[in-house]
Amino acid sequence: MSKVAINGVEINYKVTGEGEQVLLILNGIMMSVTSWTNMTPIYNKAGYKVINVDFRDQGESGASPEDYDNTQHVSDLKGLLDYLEIKECNIMGISYGGQVAMLFALKYPEMVKGLILANTISRLTNYLAAIGASWDEAAKLKDGEKFFKLAMPLIYSDTFYEKNEKWLKDRVKIFGKILTDQWFERYLRLSSSLNNYDISELIGDIKAPTLVIASDKDVVTPYEELHLIHKKIPNSKFVVIPEAGHASCYEKTDEFNLLVVGFLGIHR
Length: 268
Known about the structure:
alpha/beta, 8 strands, globular, eight-stranded mixed sheet, Rossmann fold
């Protein structure tokens, strides 16, 4: 992994693969570059140079000196791509990363070859705002185990919980060890960047070929919100992953990767 100073903040990124085509991956709010460790080699094998990146206040990137809205990440990403001399790329964003991906596609359409939007939203609904507020309250406790126990039941489906009890209990312990006070402070800044977010009337201007991935048991970004994105973006494709919640890339990894690689291959 490498770091470069962009807009006054150190941005952490990782480049793998030698393909001529580039895939930029944008994290969900609680994810980081390392969250994609098991999936990136699959995209590399399919012939793509992959760029993983941590947003400011995320993973190994630096902390922001002040509050911001999520358009700040668009500016940071533009700076990173310019630094890497990349003029065009495919972008995949999941959840929070999907929001940033749409914002980037609207501002820099000439740089986006293809767009994959998974388990994301084009507007902050009252329901999602309430979920976010509950996660913020959990984060303010600055207790990793409690945060996991309070937040995760909404992220993973009931099907996943029934089949992965030991894994989830182990994750509780891991979160208790790795989530520091600084992590929670950074998370709260990321979360506050969503205030007043609504681009649902703008995304019709996105021109890049787009794949929209929903999950039938996602309560954080429900099927209806993903279908709204699909209806708004011209000529987009819409797929629903069955028996999966918000974390579709973990719950149904093989299906998720097959959709990604297949879509990229069609529009290569």
